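Blinded run. Sample ID left blank on purpose so nobody reads anything into the name before looking at the predicted structure. Input follows.
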Amino acid sequence: GTTYKYLGLRMFAHPWNGSGVSFSSQNATKKDEENDNGSNSLTIRQAVQTIGDLNTTLTERTAHHLENLYDKPRRKGRRRRGRAAFDVALINKMIKTNDLKDEPVTKQGKCTVSWHADSCLEHYSTIAVYHTIFPHDEKEEEEEEEKEERKKKSVSNNSSSSSSSGWSVALRVAHDSEGPNASKRGKDIESSVVADTPYIATSLPSGSVYYLLDDFNHHHQHAVMADNDNENPGTRFSSTHRLLREGHNVQYVLDRCKSSCSNFHKKGSKVWRSEQLLLSDMESEWIRQFYVQGAAHRSNLWKAWGEFMLSLLRYWSQLETRTKQTIDLLRYAAEEQCDFGGCASSNEPNNVVPSRAERKLREKRKKALSTVDDILKRGGGGNSADQILYEPLAILLEERATMRHLWKKREKDHVFRRMNDEDKPLPVPFTFEVTNVEEMIANKKAGMKKNEEMGYSSLGGSPEQLRCLANNLRKWGKAYMSCDSADLPAVFENDDNITSTKKKQDDQEENESSVAVAATTIDDTNEHTKDLDWKGWNNQKFGLEMQHPWAGHLLDGRKTIETRAYDLPPSLLGKRIEILETRKGKAGVSSVGNVVSYVGGEEEKDAAIVKNIGWCVFDRIIVYEDRETFESDEGQHMVLKDSGYGWKDGHTKKLYGWVVGKCMRYEDKEEGSCKPGDIPPISRLVRRLRSLFELQFEDLHLSTDDSKRENITVKKKPNSKTFQKRGKKRRNGYHDREAGGNSVKHGKMQPKKKKKR
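Blinded prediction complete.
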């Protein structure tokens, strides 16, 4: 149940004993599983068990080192603070490459791990690091033969080998980098570095272990460097053993959930706040973190983590249901305070007895108002219910809406386009707007397998729906204070309204995308400014407008990155895009209108200045977030510093580099030949996003319309020899197709010959 969060990503650990390794995740057969002979599974299982054995050994040695530390005269009588225990091991692989940065202080090595103090650890806990180095050029057989010899050399040279291994561990003094007083130094970690004390670096031989005891990690920073003198120091593997704070173990979160759910009978602002914070933390820091790492990650760890994730999903469902109940309580209290619905005897004609549902609703409102009054009396805030109860819950809902918006944005990050399908984010198993949530939860507790890996909520799940609920809460709070029903939401802006509207929009988009006709794909609000997730990107062909001479430079291979201020639609990545060259003009200003026609009409005036000169495929996207990185690729994107397309300080926040893969320039051939490598017969260009145009085709050869057949022109009639050579291709192309009872040959319409009986 141990995890470690690093750079915003929570890593889920394998159990020490290897029991979490799944045979299915290692592509082993059932026979392998039955015989316990799956080579890959056993290799990983044995490896995990070996790291577990290493952890036991390091724990014993740490206890010995701590005893020696506290036996020293200057520490005699001091209370022992750190303990010898480790609950996680992080394995790192390090290789020296050309893009590594120099150590910033002395420039005497390449940093593979820059200056830092280990975080998320129990205060005063020890850190133990074992490392081993494998040369690049040796084969496995040679390594096995020389293994003992290298060990002997390492032991004999342990005291004198300063740079023999090619890898160094550096240390410098930096007070309160971590530990109980770390908050006092502020956010600038560099301010804690003691500049007067020089840093030291030592090269340890392969197979060494080093320890950071007691408060050493609190007042020192360390780094790992590859020596400049050694061009090929080999590959360094390290196993770092640490003792994490309790919040990084899933059992701690499950205990909090159990405690919170067992206190649902309690009500109040503090209780509700605790529940909402727990719900957001569990969703963002655990459930979403697990599924964002893809199907391969889930398959690899499900044996060890499946029960934990199912428990988290069950608690998530219960807390979502509790949120709905809390919102309903505050809503009913506000409505009763405003006498919403009035009295049965006075407002209903002829004293009609209200229905059972109406009576139950009125009882709920009375009970809710009584409960809220009791809460306010206990808290002593009877005159500020909106600020004590309604506003805090609204703020927490808005925070969760922001969290879900950021996760949605993260899951669509361009980095996932370059990853294998099994490593791309999985859909989070949440189902929203469920009417019978309690029944679903009861079925899961009873052990029913159907949809067991699923969290259920009766609330809306989108950020917009949560913000709508927050807005309604504020209105109910205002109505509670004013006792005026006019302050209630005029129409209850619940998630159902938003959901139905959203579903209608989705259905409309799906219907539009099913029409596979180029000219009819222009849809709804703005046909010339489409979103990156517009479904039309999947169905049509597109061209990119580029000014002269940059279009030619791209197709000639001189310009390998095309820079834009906007991202390429994900569906166009790896897809052939025509290069539409226009005359040289003003930077950032298109030379043509939104529609360009090649077959007449008002839009034909721009056709002469747009030339289709080739095509390319963009393989990946680079995101430039600073001037230095952008200008370092000047040789590839050919954008000069003083160019209108360059980086502008104070204005440019981000630029996108579309990396060119395959590309080809068309030869000077006649249009309409439709052979591979020739220019496709484009009839119309329609702008869809900035410089991206949809290509629309008018296939005159295949048309059954007589008016279009008359437009076919023949520039040269091939002779009989040429036709014989290309007869097979013609029969499979456009020149031997039936069209309205006639056959098209050499550009002429000839009557179809009747076969003799």
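Unblinding after everyone has recorded impressions. Residues 123 and 180 are 7 Å apart (CA to CA).
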